[in-house]
Amino acid sequence: MKVITYRKKKSLISRVVALSFSVLCFVSCDKELKPASVIVVDPVRHYYPVIQGEMMNLSYEIENTSDNPLFIQEMQTTCGCIISRDDLPVVILPHKVGYIHLTFNTIKNTGYVDHFIYCYGNFQDSTCVELEFDTNVVPRADYVHDYEQLWQEQTTGSSSIRDFVDGMPGQKGYYTNPEMSPRTRRKEEVQEVIDEVAP
After folding, report:
1. Which of the two residues, 34 and 185, has the higher pLDDT score?
2. How does pLDDT run across 100-112, given as a tens digit for each residue?
3. CA 35 to CA 32: how far, in whole Å?
4. What angle do CA 177, 179, 181 make, to 5 degrees?
5. Domain 38-193 adopts which CATH fold?
6. Cβ atoms within 10 A of the Cβ of 96, count?
């Protein structure tokens, strides 16, 4: 009769665990994320001026136009004042629309600000999609108050119908400049190359 000691039993268990883990790794490496084509609605935005200290909420709409799911695994911003409100990875199913929600804290900026958000995932054209927004952050003045600041101080604490219709100062929306969008710039670059090559 053979006696199995505690040390041999522990060694046997660790070998079985290591073997099953390696088999699991090889099986899981079999699947690969396929690229997904997307359309980003208004990737370049110009927001109206905000008063320093306000929180500005941003939502970018991303439409997955492919037959593969889109996994946005990482988001990098050009400023620590921009925080993602979504848990990563953000998953957008095929032929569905999803949103990326961000919060911009204006307390850390003054004047004209231009920020970029880089989303990394299984995008078809590249591994990264670039989102951009800009705004003017108006500092609070200690000595002379601006008209907008006086109006805001006067109406603080009383939500009026005007706030519901016009929106709060940091939530007034944005406008776009189609001539400066990345898609328009790429079309112009391609046209320049075609013009150079054409006789």
Report:
1. 34
2. 999 998 887 888 9
3. 9
4. 70
5. Immunoglobulin-like (2.60.40)
6. 13
49: preceding bond cis by omega (within 30 degrees): no
Strands 44-47 and 174-175, by their bridges, are: antiparallel
Number of Cβ within 10 Å of residue 62's Cβ equals 24
Q: Rounded CA gap, 60 and 79, in Å?
A: 17
- Residue 103 near residue 60, CB atoms below 8 Å: no
- What number of other Cβ atoms are within 10 A of residue 162's Cβ? 9
Dump pLDDT digits (tens) for 1-41: 555 565 666 666 777 666 666 655 555 554 688 999 999 99
The position carrying tokens 């590249």 is 126
Backbone angles phi, psi at 66, to 5 degrees: -105, 180
Q: Check residue 153 and give its pLDDT.
A: 64
83 CB neighbour count, 10 Å cutoff: 14
Model confidence band, residue 121 (pLDDT cutoffs 50, 70, 90): very high
The model's pTM is 0.61
Question: Within 10 Å of residue 114's Cβ, how many Cβ atoms?
Answer: 11
Query: How would you classify residue 135: left for phi > 0, otherwise alpha for psi between -120 and 50, otherwise beta?
Result: beta
Would you call 42 exposed, middle or buried from its count of C-beta atoms within 10 A (0-12, 13-18, 19+)? middle
